Amino acid sequence: GAASKGEYRHFMLKEIHEQPTVIAAALEGRLGDRNVLVESFGPEAETLFAGVRQIHLVACGTSYHAGLVARYWLERYAGVPVQVEVASEYRYRRVVVPEGTLFVTLSQSGETADTLAALRFARDRDYLGSLAICNVPGSSLVRESDLTLMTRAGPEIGVASTKAFTTQLTALMLLTLALGRLRGQDPDEQAGLVEALRGLPGLVRRVLSLDPAIEALSTAFGEKHHALFLGRGAHFPIALEGALKLKEISYIHAEAYPAGELKHGPLALVDSEMPVISVAPNDELLDKLKSNLQEVRARGGELFVFADAEVGLAEEEGVHVLRLPHVHEALAPILYTLPLQLLSYHVAVLKGTDVDQPRNLAKSVTVE
Ligand code: G6P
């Protein structure tokens, strides 16, 4: 029957809470004991992947943000150079295709006009082959690609994408490990990541239980007109996605910056009217991020920090800290997406917007 909201007030909230289940579904049958099963990408995947020397990754909207995260993973764990581009730009470029390039599209719907046009454009170029990571079986993108990996998020009704994004990230980590395996990734590193993936649905569930605390934080945004999201490394795209969610459903103007760029412009905007949201997992960039946050505080900006429980960031006047369970550093971008989804959701509810159907936006953009 028709999708139902069940006990939830909005589809978006229901879909946020489905994430432990759909991430587990995205992993189902695709993990071996100590590695990812390359055949998850189809019987031809192993041969095709063996020839991959670089990747062009093309998508729109939230799917593009997933691609930006994957670049960090593919470089670090599979040693593959990656270009990521929005489809509407890619399709009109005189793109140069080096030998051994795999063309990857990411799309929830599989029907986004620009992404589909980019695939059709790529088919006439000298690519090694194409892979679609998609949520809709039988969609145009799936039908027209050489290889496919379904994200298994189930129907997503809320226009602002949530579970489709985190399952795309999960699928992209599988791609990273599949390529890593064929490119000499340290087997222990791969085994560690596979184990971490198995624990991911449980961690996601724990983060969802922080919802009341996130709802409490959201009240600070009711009267705000702007917000700045900061992240470093693979969390820069997570900051971009956080800003997109806030814009889409609460209509608050939000920007995201890599925290290291703060001094090159956005710091000029920081005052007591500019809330600054940051994700601070426990990684090698933490100390640098901390000093960026001090600069914001010194200008009176109110800080909202989502931080690893082990990081030791103190709650103080103007600094709100929400602690997340410790997670394998590679999977932190997936986990840290959740509080940003919930924050936007609660701000939108507070502002009384049409959360599932934000003004002027469509679930799927099938015309250029
Ligand atoms: C629209 C939707 C977004 C989505 C984007 C790309 O803008 O509102 O949520 O991220 O299209 O859609 P796709 O189906 O290709 O992932």
UniProtKB/TrEMBL annotation:
<feature type="active site" description="For Fru-6P isomerization activity">
    <location>
        <position position="363"/>
    </location>
</feature>
<keyword id="KW-0315">Glutamine amidotransferase</keyword>
<dbReference type="GO" id="GO:0006487">
    <property type="term" value="P:protein N-linked glycosylation"/>
</dbReference>
<keyword id="KW-0032">Aminotransferase</keyword>
<dbReference type="GO" id="GO:0097367">
    <property type="term" value="F:carbohydrate derivative binding"/>
</dbReference>
<dbReference type="GO" id="GO:0006047">
    <property type="term" value="P:UDP-N-acetylglucosamine metabolic process"/>
</dbReference>
<dbReference type="GO" id="GO:0006002">
    <property type="term" value="P:fructose 6-phosphate metabolic process"/>
</dbReference>
<dbReference type="GO" id="GO:0005829">
    <property type="term" value="C:cytosol"/>
</dbReference>
<dbReference type="GO" id="GO:0005975">
    <property type="term" value="P:carbohydrate metabolic process"/>
</dbReference>
<comment type="function">
    <text>Catalyzes the first step in hexosamine metabolism, converting fructose-6P into glucosamine-6P using glutamine as a nitrogen source.</text>
</comment>
<feature type="domain" description="SIS">
    <location>
        <begin position="44"/>
        <end position="185"/>
    </location>
</feature>
<protein>
    <recommendedName>
        <fullName>Glutamine--fructose-6-phosphate aminotransferase [isomerizing]</fullName>
        <ecNumber>2.6.1.16</ecNumber>
    </recommendedName>
</protein>
<keyword id="KW-0963">Cytoplasm</keyword>
<feature type="domain" description="SIS">
    <location>
        <begin position="217"/>
        <end position="358"/>
    </location>
</feature>
<keyword id="KW-0677">Repeat</keyword>
<dbReference type="GO" id="GO:0004360">
    <property type="term" value="F:glutamine-fructose-6-phosphate transaminase (isomerizing) activity"/>
</dbReference>
<keyword id="KW-0808">Transferase</keyword>
<comment type="subunit">
    <text>Homodimer.</text>
</comment>
<dbReference type="GO" id="GO:0046349">
    <property type="term" value="P:amino sugar biosynthetic process"/>
</dbReference>
